[in-house]
Design brief:
Elements: E1 3-5, E2 8-10, H1 15-25, E3 32-33, H2 34-42, H3 50-66, E4 77-81, E5 84-88, H4 95-106, H5 113-125, H6 138-165, H7 169-181, H8 186-198, H9 202-220, H10 226-237, H11 287-298, E6 308-313, H12 320-331, E7 339-343, H13 356-366, H14 378-389, E8 395-401, H15 404-407, E9 418-423, H16 428-434, E10 437-440, H17 446-457, H18 459-463, H19 466-475, H20 480-492, H21 498-507, H22 522-533, H23 537-545, E11 554-555, H24 556-563, H25 567-579, E12 584-586, E13 590-592, H26 595-608, H27 611-636, H28 660-680, H29 687-703, H30 707-724, H31 727-743, H32 747-764, H33 767-783, H34 787-803, H35 807-823, H36 827-844, H37 847-863, H38 867-884, H39 887-903, H40 907-924, H41 931-939
Parallel strand pairs: 6-9, 6-10, 7-8, 8-9
Antiparallel strand pairs: 1-2, 3-5, 4-5, 11-13, 12-13
Helix pairs in contact: 1-2, 1-3, 4-5, 5-6, 6-7, 6-8, 7-8, 8-9, 8-10, 9-10, 13-14, 17-19, 17-20, 19-21, 20-22, 23-25, 23-26, 24-25, 24-27, 27-28, 27-29, 28-29, 29-30, 29-31, 30-31, 31-32, 31-33, 32-33, 33-34, 33-35, 34-35, 35-36, 35-37, 36-37, 37-38, 37-39, 38-39, 39-40, 40-41
């Protein structure tokens, strides 16, 4: 803190007097109350003579201000105002205020990059050494830290704009010096890495990243943030791609003109989605339809205010999906921001049509929207989805739509995107209201059908018997699906003349009805029958049984369970079906039917297999899903089941999962099937499977914020359990519904479900169930500030867990008791409970439980003044949260770690921890009003969504 008078540094006096001058200067032009000045200089507990000392310091400073007269600037005046003192001066006479003025002008959008660079250079030139050097106290430390942040922000902004207008080498030296002063500030590291890379010194840029990564790990126990990791990965790939361009918030000034609309785009949460399925091998024909689609694509640029919608319709099996996917893959380079795809299952034989809510939620997941950011209602989810697509070029393929109402919520709302819809129905309503362009796909022409056979069988074989080819084409009715099945059979028997195949088709029983209300001709039905009869006995049986699968697709272990055969044998049988084009292999080892084939298989199994055979196969399949889901759920949150599962049917082996990641991946792949199974299990007479599957899904759906699916599953579960009079099943369903209502912030409805569940578990004498309900009620009570009530529920939970020797449950209850006691101020007793909890969690291998307990211990030890041990506990918690993928827990732990550093007089590590936590809350999509994020914004003195933020001079004292 210096005072310059006519080019020389005046002697202000001792540190307390310099602190008084600083406390007045930060509020230049505004009166500062005497009590505020005292707190700024002497802290919250000033000595008895503080007010007299303040008056003495003010008197000396007044005389010093008088010496500024005749210095070529307006004289400084220190005057008394009602309630306090005021330093009269122009803001540009105080370096910090001048600095803020220049930095603010540099943010004005109308300025050129050259002007911005000049303003920021001048602002940074005002910075000389440590701000408020030699001044002690909490107020000086807080202001110093705030000014450092503004200095860093201005430096990063200058680097970005200077790099655009001059040689990036010019910024490397100043940046290196800044990093020596602020070694853990990631934006500085990012800026230096960019500059080094631009200067052709990529190896040094990578060394820089390695150094900061090591420092972060050693000092904070964390990894670099997402933005820094992206820059690092881009350099490793050989260049800084558009996807890691500098965020606007870090680089004031005009960005380069975008190659596509992006100015209004909502921040993209993750990598651009690429959901298009595999294209059809040997796609042929459809020249006219492809030309129409190309023309529609060209019109996207001509429609600056509307999204382009194209609806492709045609009968079942005509190749609508194949055409849409083939064209979409050709056109994907025109949509660099991603391609979304969903099968809406509009005509699936099982009737499990995908709802718009399920589809839009799937899109939000594909767009990497964190579960915490997904709103509850369909309208709000659609709004978020359209906001994410606004200003971008994204292709949205809506396959197999039932009607216009199903697709309307899924249509993008802004120009630049294109929606491609397929349906068996002509969606004229979309044309009338949304301006969709309609395209009808007909049967393949005879020549196109012949070309398809040539692609599959070779020209020589096809040309050798034109009459047989003509008959095959005619009996397949020009449908690509039927032709592909015949071609697969012919390719599998290369020695068989095509005339013999045509004869087999001719003799096939054609008296059967059409599959789907006349949409599939009897000729196509004959092709299915003919191809089915060519299967081996085991493969034919598997094909029929697959008609019992709830859909939409199946993994090999589920197929093996359905058939009651080992996985190796199932793989052989599935391969036979795939070769015959009766089953389609999808990525990640999953298999799916065409809807027509699924209907045909369902009809066959109903006709050829006995009721007992169908029940037994369905029971094996549902047992496989239930026992695997139960195992996966236990891996997500280790605990014994409230009720043991009945033994699985022979042949219904559960998948072997090990670890949290495998369990998470299994649920991610299978949850659409499991939700369909919940819906369809009652029809198979498996009512208990309905509520047990819903219960096993609860943790996964809850952690992913899928409240709508959670409510639907447990509503079905409650109905199924009620029909059977299953008390435990009803209790589990009420528990799931209570959890969903709790998450939707409807505490009255949640409490009603929880209390009903508690009553039902009591009737059943189920201690484990009552333990979990008391745990839920305890957390609800604590959130509402009812700590004594929460403590009572936590003790009840512990008692019930002990009654069934549930050690993982005991650990959770003990930790919760310790946490509540800490909130009530009984830290020693809280420490005892949490240490007991940790022993049990380590014994049961519950990593997530250990993370929460270490977090509780860190909190308690911090309150007991054991700062070093508190830091150690928090760092252990962070490691565990990171290991289990609990990002919210990781952010909360970083907040607490920063608080400990701050209380221990280490403001820089504190700010770094809080900054990391803030980055995680952004990745999770938490709103500014969320308590965790709001607390971070306050700690970091950053503006919230309304742009308000206290400056250093107006910060609370």
């Amino acid at each position: 803190m210096e005072l310059q008078i006519q080019g020389r540094t005046a002697e202000v006096g001792p540190p307390q007097r310099r602190t008084v001058l600083a406390a007045l200067a930060v509020d230049t032009g505004r009166p500062v109350a005497a009590d505020v000045l005292i707190r700024r200089v002497w802290g919250a507990d000033p000595p008895d003579g503080a007010r007299r000392a303040l008056h003495a310091h003010v008197a000396r400073l007044r005389r010093l201000c008088e010496q500024t007269e005749g210095s070529g600037h307006p004289r400084l005046r220190l005057v008394r105002r009602s309630g306090g003192y005021l330093l009269e001066a122009r803001e540009d006479q105080v370096d910090f205020h001048r600095f803020r003025q220049l930095a603010g002008r540099a943010r004005e959008t109308e300025r050129t990059d050259e002007a911005r660079a000049a303003l920021l250079r001048e602002a940074l030139g005002l910075w000389h050494g440590e701000p408020l050097a030699g001044l002690g106290g909490q107020w000086a430390a807080r202001v110093r830290e705030a000014w450092r942040r503004q200095h860093v922000d201005a430096a990063v902004a200058w680097v970005h704009v200077e790099s655009r207008v001059s040689d990036p080498v010019a910024v490397i030296g100043p940046l290196t010096e800044l990093l020596e002063a602020y070694p853990l500030v990631e934006p500085l590291t990012e800026a230096l890495m960019r500059a080094l890379h631009a200067a052709g010194r990529s190896a040094e840029a990578l060394d820089c990243y390695a150094a900061v990564r090591k420092r972060l790990a050693e000092e904070l126990g964390t990894d670099p943030g997402a933005e820094l990791r992206k820059v690092h990965e881009a350099i490793l790939r050989g260049g800084l791609a558009e996807s890691v361009a500098r965020p606007a918030s870090r680089a004031p000034g005009r960005a380069a003109p975008p190659a596509r609309p992006s100015a209004a785009a909502t921040p993209w949460p993750g990598a651009a989605p690429g959901q298009l399925p595999m294209g059809v091998q040997g796609f042929i024909g459809r020249g006219e339809e492809l030309a129409r689609l190309e023309a529609i694509l060209a019109s996207v640029a001509d429609q600056p205010s509307a999204v382009v919608i194209t609806a492709v319709s045609g009968t079942a099996g005509v190749g609508k999906t194949a055409l849409a996917v083939h064209w979409a893959r050709r056109a994907q380079r025109a949509f660099p921001d991603g391609q979304l795809y969903v099968n809406l299952r509009g005509f699936t034989p099982s009737g499990s049509v995908l709802s718009p809510a399920e589809a839009v939620r799937g899109f939000l997941d594909a767009l990497s929207v964190p579960p915490a950011r997904v709103p509850a209602g369909l309208e709000a989810q659609v709004g978020l989805y359209r906001s994410l697509l606004a200003g971008r070029r994204v292709l949205v393929v809506l396959d197999n739509a039932r009607d216009a109402e199903q697709v309307r919520p899924l249509l993008p709302g802004a120009p630049g995107c294109l929606a491609l819809i397929t349906s068996r129905r002509s969606l004229t309503g979309l044309a009338a209201t949304e301006g969709a362009q309609l395209l009808t796909v007909g049967m393949l022409a005879a020549e196109e059908a012949r070309e398809l056979l040539i692609r599959r069988l070779g020209a020589e074989r096809v040309k050798a018997d034109p009459d047989a080819v003509r008959e095959i084409v005619g009996r397949c009715a020009g449908l690509p699906l039927a032709l592909a099945i015949v071609a697969a059979r012919a390719a599998a028997q290369p020695e068989l003349p095509l005339a013999a195949l045509a004869e087999e088709l001719r003799l096939t029983d054609r008296r059967l009805d059409a599959l789907d209300s006349g949409e599939a001709s009897s000729e196509v039905r004959a092709v299915f029958s003919w191809s089915y009869r060519a299967l081996g006995q085991e493969a034919a049986r598997l094909f029929r049984l697959l008609g019992l699968h709830p859909g939409p697709d199946a993994a090999l272990p589920a197929v093996a369970a359905l058939a009651g055969v080992p996985a190796a044998r199932a793989r052989v049988l599935v391969a036979e079906l795939v070769r015959g084009h009766l089953l389609t292999e999808q990525p990640a080892g999953r298999y799916a039917f065409h809807d027509l084939l699924r209907a045909y298989a369902a009809e066959l199994v109903a006709t050829h297999d006995s009721d007992d055979t169908r029940r037994t196969a369905a029971h094996r399949l549902f047992d496989h899903y239930l026992h695997t889901a139960h195992r996966a759920d236990a891996l997500l949150t280790p605990r014994p089941s409230p009720t043991p599962l009945p033994p699985a049917q022979p042949g219904a082996a559960a998948e072997q999962l090990s670890g949290h990641r495998q369990a998470q991946a299994w649920f991610t792949a299978e949850h659409p099937v499991l939700l369909a199974a919940v819906e369809q299990a009652p029809a198979a007479g498996l009512h208990s499977h309905t509520w047990r599957l819903a219960s096993a899904l609860t943790t996964y759906l809850d952690r992913h914020g899928n409240r709508r699916a959670l409510i639907a599953a447990h509503t079905a579960a409650l109905d199924a359990a009620g029909r059977e009079g299953d008390v435990v099943g009803q209790a589990e369903a009420h528990r799931g519904l209570g959890l969903a209502e709790d998450r939707l912030d409807r505490p009255d409805a949640a409490r009603a479900h929880y209390l009903r569940a508690l009553e039902l578990f009591g009737e059943a004498g189920d201690h484990a169930g009552r333990a979990r309900i008391h745990q839920h009620l305890s957390r609800m009570s604590e959130a509402q500030g009812r700590h004594q009530q929460a403590l009572g529920h936590a003790h009840d939970s512990l008692a019930h867990h002990r009654a069934v020797d549930d050690r993982a449950g005991q650990s959770a209850a003990l930790n919760h008791i310790g946490w509540i006691l800490a909130q009530l101020g009984d830290h020693q007793q809280a420490l005892t409970y949490c240490r007991q909890a940790l022993e049990l969690a380590q014994e049961t291998g519950d990593l997530n439980g250990q993370a929460h307990i270490q977090d509780s211990l860190g909190y308690i030890l911090h309150r007991l003044g054991e700062h070093a041990e508190a830091v150690d506990r928090y760092q252990q918690a962070l490691d565990l949260f990171h290991q289990t993928g609990d990002r919210h827990g990781e952010a909360a732990g970083l907040v607490c770690l920063g608080d400990v550093h701050g209380a221990n007089g280490r403001p820089y590590p504190a700010r770094t921890a809080w900054t990391h936590a803030l980055a995680i809350t952004a990745e999770l999509g938490l709103p500014d009003a969320d308590p965790l994020r709001a607390g971070l914004l306050e700690r970091l003195d950053l503006p919230s969504a309304d742009g308000s933020a206290p400056g250093p001079g107006s910060a609370p004292d």
